[in-house]
Write a structure and sequence with these properties.
Elements: E1 4-6, H1 8-11, H2 16-21, E2 26-30, H3 39-53, E3 64-71, E4 79-85, H4 92-102, E5 106-110, H5 117-124, E6 130-136
Antiparallel strand pairs: 1-6, 2-4, 2-5, 3-4, 3-6
Helix pairs in contact: 3-4
Amino acid sequence: MPRQMIRSKSLSGFYARDLARKKWQFAATLGFRSRSVPFWMANRMFNAWIFEIEGRDDSAHGSRWFRVNAFGAFPDKPLFHVLVCGLETISKYRLKASWQEIAGDAEIKYFYPDVNAFAFIADIARSDTKFEIDSDLD
């Protein structure tokens, strides 16, 4: 799916059904240790992280993710807000350690079934910052 640049007011028309259908396991906020990170490099780090947490084999081919790429006061330093599901049994600490090794700071929480995924993403998007949506939901 191609990236889409949208504002928070437009988010409600996107993805609500897809987000509600998934049984999300983790909610993450992923930052970068470098002062300036071009988006292509940040995206490459994210893909390396996904590859790492999937276990480098086909056993996690059912994993899915939804990412909000936030661009705040520093557009050359994105912040990723991510929902992940479909992983084999895994600890949030392993996910955090993997991101810290690859790119920088990570705050990762277990995503409980009673939390509304769409409301979670909408809360992230409430600010006036621009953001993009990336996902692998299929």
